[in-house]
Specification:
mainly alpha; single chain; 174 residues
């Protein structure tokens, strides 16, 4: 079995988990599911010889668990600092930069106490990981991020937009 094929099998586990994670209402359940998915995604990247993404995702697996219990801004800053250190020490080019910027959005969101903000940051970060995976050309990784961003957007809509009543026509400004 080739490293590429094994990487695609591992990221398939991520795909399954992330297909439902952002549909959960409880923020802590979302973060726990993302922790498990990050573990498998990390090994997918390491098999593809992408150390920045691999180690960022291994660290993210732990970071998501920590963010369930503690929402402290100093832990968020420490996490971002460690992610920056990982990026600098494993830097291999533009993919490292894209991965780090994506991680900034996701880290800021995961330490937020606001579920709505979490979902918006996941959409932004997931979109950058989608770009990363397109440039890397990891087919299942691309599907993971398409589903993750799509599911995040659907979850955001379901919980924060669908229940809003439209303005009466006379209040709509054109």
């Amino acid at each position: 079995m080739t490293a590429f094929f094994l990487s695609q099998l591992l990221v398939t586990i991520t795909l399954i988990i992330e297909s439902f994670a952002m549909q959960l209402k409880n923020k802590n359940y979302i973060l726990a599911a993302l922790s498990v998915s990050c573990f498998f995604n990390a090994w997918h990247y390491l098999l593809l010889e992408q150390p920045t993404a691999g180690y960022i995702f291994l660290f993210s697996s732990i970071r998501f668990l920590v963010s369930i219990k503690w929402k402290s801004q100093w832990i968020s800053v420490a996490s971002l600092s460690l992610s920056l250190l990982i990026t600098i020490s494993t830097y291999i080019g533009v993919l490292s930069i894209i991965g780090f910027i994506a991680t900034v959005f996701i880290t800021v969101g995961s330490f937020s106490k606001n579920d709505k903000f979490l979902r918006l940051m996941m959409i932004a970060g997931g979109s950058l990981w989608l770009l990363h995976n397109l440039l890397l050309w990891t087919p299942v990784g691309i599907m993971v991020e398409v589903i993750f961003v799509g599911s995040s957007a659907i979850g955001y809509y379901r919980y924060y937009r669908a229940n809003k009543k439209p303005l009466p026509l006379e209040q709509v400004k054109l």
